[in-house]
Amino acid sequence: MVSKNRFQTDQQIIWCPGCGNFGVFQALQNTLEELNLRPDQVLAVFGIGCHGHMANYLKTYTVEALHGRAIPLAMGVKLANNSLTVLAIAGDGDQLGEGGNHLIHACRKNPDIKCLIHNNQLYSLTVGQASPTSDLGTKTKTTPDGVFDQPLNPLTLALASGASFVARGFAGNVPQLTRILIEAIKHKGFAVIDILQPCPSLNKANTFQWFQQRVYELGKNYNFKDKNKAFEKALEWGEKIPIGIFYQENRPTLEDHLLPVLKKSINNLFLKTDFKKLIAEFR
Asked: Which has the minimum average pLDDT: 15-24, 132-141, 193-202, 272-281?
């Protein structure tokens, strides 16, 4: 169950019992509390999927985007109101399937938004079709003979595309996931957080127990500034699965580059426009 605080609405939560979304939701609430943010200082854009129900439960500004389109909407929000903490919250199918192109280009543009990927390795809202992160051999309604496509690795994709903050958390370890999300929000730039989130109703292989037997935290001696090491660790998947902050770098954001240009353009537009003449044309 989720411990209720000022970031939870009074809406009834309808996720399946034992869903990993509960852990993610708790960690996100903990994070916003720890950072002493107010609900009106945060805007979360959701994709389409089971995670998207959180738009009804999270007491901040929330928007549900089109399937796979959480990131471009979040980027527009951040450019329109740079003072907001902006989150793009999506599922593995939503963000890595339909929204894969947006993820790649956001990584290289480096907007100051945080992309949380609820990764349960299925399209669970539509009752369990294979997603881009489904393991080889996974049998679903759309892959009755088993998945034969190579699973997509969100971390290596983010690293190769230029994300300035790349991390992986586990819904079954709320304290550590909270620490990761705190650092992601404090980071100035585009943060990608792949969250291992079991789906007990439909994914009978990648369960909480399965992950608990495999996940381990990157140690204090791990150098998250070493991109080559980040790639090496991101490729670990099987008997051992690392979680934590894989990579972080500081570089100018999209807003650093674009907002001064937009401000100048808008000022010039207003200075050079004869609004009385413009209004007269529409009378």
From this structure: 272-281
Contacts of 52 (CB under 8 A, 6+ apart): 46, 64, 89, 91, 125
92 phi and psi angles, rounded to 5 deg:
-65, -45
The set of residues, in sequence order, having a beta carbon less than 8 Å from that of 280 and lying 6+ positions away, is none
Contact residues for 153 (Cβ-Cβ < 8 A; gap 6+): 234, 235, 237
Ordered structural domains, the chain, with CATH: 21-251 (3.40.50.970), 253-283 (no CATH)
pTM for the whole thing? 0.91
CA distances from 223 to 42, 147, 153 (A): 30, 35, 21
Cα angle 227-110-156, degrees, rounded to a multiple of 5: 35
Distance between CA atoms of residues 186 and 114, nearest Å:
10
Q: Supply the Cα-derived Rg of the chain in whole angstroms.
A: 20
Render pLDDT for 193-217 as a digit per residue (tens, 0 to 9).
999 999 999 999 999 999 999 999 9
